[in-house]
Structures are given as C-alpha cells and as structure tokens.
Amino acid sequence: MIRYVSTRGPGDPKSFLDVMLAGLAPDGGLYVPDTWPEIDRAMQEHLAGAPYTLVAGTIMNPFLGGMISASTLQQILVDTYDGDSFNHTAVAPLTQIGPSAWILELYHGPTLSFKDYALQFIGRLFDHILEQKKQKLTIVGATSGDTGSAAIEACKGCKNINTFILHPKDRTSDVQRRQMTTVDAPNIHNIAIEGNFDDCQALVKAMLLDQKLSQDLHLSAVNSINWARIMAQSVYYFTAALALGAPHRPVNFTVPTGNFGNVYSAFVARRMGLPIQKLTLATNRNDILTRFFETGEMKPDKVMPSISPSMDIQVSSNFERYLFDLLRREQGSVNTLMNEFRAHKAFGISQEKLKEANREFSADRCSDPETITMMRECYEATGILIDPHTAVGLHAAMRTQEDPTIPSVVLACAHPAKFPDAVEQATGIRPQLPLHLAGLMDKTEHFTVLPNDLNKVTTFIRSELPK
To answer: What range defines the domain where residue 359 resides?
Structure first.
C-alpha cells in the first residue's frame, strides 16, 4: 500500500487523504509516494483504446492506498470527464501536425487550459472527502494565469470549501484574469498581489507552513504542490502514448513548463512504466530550468514579463520532487540544497548528477520573437492556431527532435483564445472565445488588490471567512 513521505525530512508516512488535505508537508517539503506503482506492458495493452475515465481509474487507484474505493473513484471520474465540463468525447484529443508530430489538446475543459484536467477532478474529490468527514476547508492558491481560473471553476459550487486565489497584478492576460474575477460566488475570493507569481507562491507556502494559521483556518492547496494534481495530470500522458502505439513503441513528449508540475507528471508516468523515450521541457525567456539542465546550477534571475505569462516563473516548486529522486531519495541531501537555496538564492549539483539529469530530460528556451514566429509558421503550415505557450513547446520539439520514427507530442496547454493579442500579432487572426465564455469581457470583476505582505493577506482571508 502506497504511503507518502516528505522530500525534506523524516516523519511517519502519510496516507493519500492526509497529503491531499494538507498540500504541503510541515517541514516545507513536498509529498511523494514511497514507491512507484507499475502499469505493466500487459495492462497498457489492455488500456489502449479504453475510455479516458477507465485509464484514469487504473492510473490513479494505486496512489489512493485504499483510502477511497475503486467504485467511488470511478464514479467521481465519470462525473468529472463524461459530464458537461469537457467538450470533446476523447477528453484529451491528439491532432497531427506533421509526419511524426502531434499536439495534445489540453484545452477542452471549462476554463480552456490543462489545469482543468486535474482541478475539475480534485474539486469533486475534495467535496466528497469533506462531506464524508463533515469538515470545511480553506483553499489557498497562487496562479500565474491558468491554475486560478481552473480552481475557481472547480470549487465555486463546493459548499464545504472557501477558495482564495492569489494572482500577480497586471501580469496575466485579460482573459485569464477575467476568468477568475468575474465569477460571483460567495466562497470565491480573488486577490491581486502587487508582485510577480513567485511572490504569490511564497505567500501561499508561508501560510501553509504556519502550523497555527493552517490549523485555525483548515488550509490546503490546489497548486501542483498538492500531490493529487500530479497524479491526475499523469493520466493524459498514458492516453496519448497508448493512442500512438505504446507500449509497443516509445513516444516523445515536449512540455511547456514554468513550475515543473506538468513535466514532472510525465516523469511520474515514465516511472510507472510508460515508454517515454525523450522528455523535453520548454521554457520562455524565464529560463531557470533550461539553465539548470545546461549548467547544473539552480539560480533565479529577475522575472521578466513575456507573451507566455503562465511560464513567467523563476522558482519552480515541483523541481524539488525530481531532485528527491535524483539524489536517491536522501532527504538530508534535499534539505541541505533547499537550505542553501533559501540562504544564497542558488544551489548546484555535481557534474555526475547533471549527466544523469540530462539522461532524464532535455531542455530548451524560446524568446518572444521566436514564439511569434512559431505561432505564424504553425498556422501557415497546418491552418491550426496555437497559443504562445504551445508555441514555446513546439519550438523546443523541433529543435530537439532526433529520431523521426518516434512519435513526438507537444502539449497544447491552453486555447489560443486565452491569448488573443499574441495570436493576432502572429497570424493576423483574432481567435474567438467558445460560446460558453461569450460575454466574458463585459462581466463585472470582483477582486481585491493587496501588497506583497503576508500579514495583510492573512488578515484579509480571516475577514472574509464565514463566521
């Protein structure tokens, strides 16, 4: 039975429910499973062509450690993916854009981003667990653009959850911001922080690490620091690879990334036995992760605004989970590096470890001009509009592809209509929002602007919670 341990320190292993409701470990580490479950070749063959919900149940069930029955899990999955929330029968369809190239369309959920694929499920799972336990929960989350709207959409009808989402003021697209701030529900609260995403993320972590505050307010997280997010995101790697011939042939994936959560979910799928040959992470001008895989040094630079704002991140929380495996799960070694990072704003690994990391991942960066060029070239070649984050991924895939006989999949993490200005600049075409979001730009917004100040943020949250 799988249990969960912190990346940073000793302590009794926790259950799935414990880590889902807590989000972050008390020592500041992230929870990871104590063993990796295996989806063997025979099971992968059996799942090829199966409905998304069946694949999801098979992938997720081992991680639950018996805390939720398989039948209950399956019902939650059916409610999530077979209802009205996702508008494509395949849930996460593949579209071919070249002889051995596909994009994985992860924008068919209600907020048009890949975050829906985990958060629509997690919202329902949270509500089920809290109803069983007769508990209330306060969700705090930081977003660089898409997590916030997906979390709000998932939680707005949950009677046992109050949700507070922090976004960096003036650093998301207008569509991204309005998808959060136009939701008028009593349990939804938007906070615009005068800072960048890293500031928002640091505030959320500080609140979760304050044991008294966390217990008083029953805090938890929906960011990808919550293991349940990683688990749920691993599913679409399986469905895509199986559709392209796995386990009988390997598949390459390229993932636009900022916080390392989505690409780490691919790493988890590989650990479970999925034959991922090449796993490439793609960054924009905020290229701390690419620089790490080039030099072995993790050293933040100033966050630079870009046309792919969801990736404007210099502190990638989920990288700690990969570091834990890279360092052979030696919690003391991880803790030492994290302390060094906190004290000196940098840490490094040995050349031997860097070589090992480069066997696991490739990395590339894409400038704003290159992003615009990629969006235009994709449209001219295929007639398909892609958003700037997808363009960053496609740019990296084209630069790192080595074997044309291996299918290559680029994750399309957002609908082009979420970034209409960039798409229009690149192609001359302004993408339209789907019908269910028509009128978004005319709706009244609801948000509170606060400074990058922990005391002011926590005071505000206390004041807004039901008495």
So the answer is: 94-112+229-427
Q: Which two structure tokens, joined as six digits, stand for 332?
A: 């003391």
Give bridge partners of residue 408 from the DSSP assignment. Answer: 101, 252
Contacts of residue 134, defined as CB under 8 A and 6 or more positions apart, other chains included, come to none
**Torsion-angle region of 345 (φ positive above 0: left; ψ -120 to 50: alpha; else: beta):** left
Within a domain: 70: no
Number of helical H runs and strand E runs in the chain? 20, 15
**Token pair for 281:** 């992470």
Is residue 251 situated within a structural domain?
A: yes
| pTM of the complete model beyond 0.90 | yes
Query: Are the beta carbons of 400 and 278 closer than 8 angstroms?
Result: yes
Mean pLDDT of 65-90: 95
Do the Cβ atoms of 111 and 179 come closer than 8 Å? yes
- 271: domain CATH number is 3.40.50.1100
Question: Cα-flanking dihedrals φ and ψ of residue 278, to 5°?
Answer: -125, 130
Domain count, the chain: 1
At residue 25 the predicted structure's pLDDT band, cuts being 50, 70 and 90, is very high
Cα–Cα distances in Å, from 350 out to 213, 292, 314, 345? Answer: 38, 12, 21, 18
Q: Which two tokens stand for residue 45?
A: 């063959």
CA–CA separation, 382 vs 111, rounded Å?
25
For the chain, what is the mean pLDDT? Answer: 95
CA pair distance 399, 363, nearest whole angstrom: 10
| E-strand stretches of 301-446 | 347-348, 362-365, 408-412
Mean pLDDT of 440-461: 96
Q: Is 340 left (phi over 0), alpha (psi -120 to 50) or beta?
A: alpha
Cis previous bond, 110, omega within 30: no
The predicted pLDDT at position 224 comes to 86
pLDDT over threshold 90, residue 10: no
* pLDDT for residue 136: 92
Q: How far apart are CA 265 and CA 75, in angstroms?
A: 23
Q: Are 339 and 48 in contact (CB under 8 A)?
A: no
Please say if 115 is a catalytic residue. yes
Q: What tokens were used for 125?
A: 């799972």
The tokens for 375 are: 């969006």
Residue whose structure tokens are 């001009």: 369
Of the candidates 14, 115, 169, 418, the residue annotated as catalytic is 115
Phi first, then psi, for residue 67 (nearest 5°) are -75, -20
E strand map for 99-160: 101-105, 137-142
Rounded Cα distance between 388 and 420, Å, is 10
On whether residue 43 sits in a domain, the answer given is: no
340 belongs to a structural domain: yes
pLDDT digits (tens, 9 = 90+) for 344-383: 999 999 999 999 999 999 999 999 999 999 999 999 999 9
